[in-house]
Amino acid sequence: MTSIDALISQKDSLAYWNNIDSTVNGMMGGYPHISRVDIRGSLNFISKLRSRRPKSILSRAADIGAGIGRVTAGVLSRTASTIDIVEPVSKFADQARQLGSDGGLTTMGDGRVGQVYVCGVEDWIPERKYDLIWIQWCLGHLKTEQAVTCLVRCGEALSEGGWIAVKENLSTNVTGEDVFDELDSSVTRTDASYRALFMSAGLKVCMTELQKGFPSELFPVRMYALRPS
Ligand SMILES: C[S@@+](CC[C@H](N)C(=O)[O-])C[C@H]1O[C@@H](n2cnc3c(N)ncnc32)[C@H](O)[C@@H]1O
């Protein structure tokens, strides 16, 4: 266990998220206007990843740490027919469940929300296979060992030819260290720490790209496409 692992607390992070509004502003930490750029970056990444069949629709995706379903609505519903949701905060999960019906975000593609699992991803045991498992701004809430276990489970839950996509902030610490944020009890990892996590989980990086177009005061955000090695 690293010294930061000892500080990470699921109880504290859930207390933080339960106090956050169920809005795009809440999901984006006060930068709602960059949600569109984020979604465009993710869609471009997926279409490069699927360069041979970019327009064909995947059967099933999962949105991990989905919040109110911003990624499901903007990205995954344009990519897959059915999207399962994993989100521990019930008020967010309830809103994600409503996507495509009323309330919620209205910008859904043709995909629909399938099963909604109201739990932390550390407690999620996938019950079926997925063509794409999207994990965005959520792995920082897990200790190293939990993150590795979660990635191993996700790797085992991929259908033939499927991918895990991880999209996370990267630490810019001058001495190249992971940084703990006590506000939401999360760790911002370095690129090297993420790659070490992936390797420990038996995953290889098939493609990776920095998100472009975010304000310079924010952490750099990197996308990784992963498959069992
Ligand atoms: C910054 S929001 C991102 C939401 C969504 N991924 C997006 O990009 O719009 C972080 C989300 O992670 C969720 N979260 C916190 N701890 C988690 C855990 N242990 N497992 C899964 N999700 C978690 C929070 O409830 C919150 O919805």
From TrEMBL:
Presence of the UniProt keyword Methyltransferase in the record: yes
Domain of life of the native organism:
Eukaryota
EC code(s) of this entry = 2.1.1.244
Q: Which reaction does it catalyse?
A: N-terminal L-prolyl-L-prolyl-L-lysyl-[protein] + 2 S-adenosyl-L-methionine = N-terminal N,N-dimethyl-L-prolyl-L-prolyl-L-lysyl-[protein] + 2 S-adenosyl-L-homocysteine + 2 H(+); N-terminal L-seryl-L-prolyl-L-lysyl-[protein] + 3 S-adenosyl-L-methionine = N-terminal N,N,N-trimethyl-L-seryl-L-prolyl-L-lysyl-[protein] + 3 S-adenosyl-L-homocysteine + 3 H(+); N-terminal L-alanyl-L-prolyl-L-lysyl-[protein] + 3 S-adenosyl-L-methionine = N-terminal N,N,N-trimethyl-L-alanyl-L-prolyl-L-lysyl-[protein] + 3 S-adenosyl-L-homocysteine + 3 H(+)
Matching Pfam families: Methyltransf_PK
Which cellular components does GO assign to this protein? Answer: cytoplasm
Q: Which InterPro entries match?
A: MeTrfase_NTM1, SAM-dependent_MTases_sf
Record-listed S-adenosyl-L-methionine binding positions: G65, R70, Q136
What is any one GO biological process for this UniProt entry?
methylation
Check the record and name the SUPFAM superfamilies matching this protein.
S-adenosyl-L-methionine-dependent methyltransferases
Query: Could you tell me what this protein is called?
Result: Alpha N-terminal protein methyltransferase 1
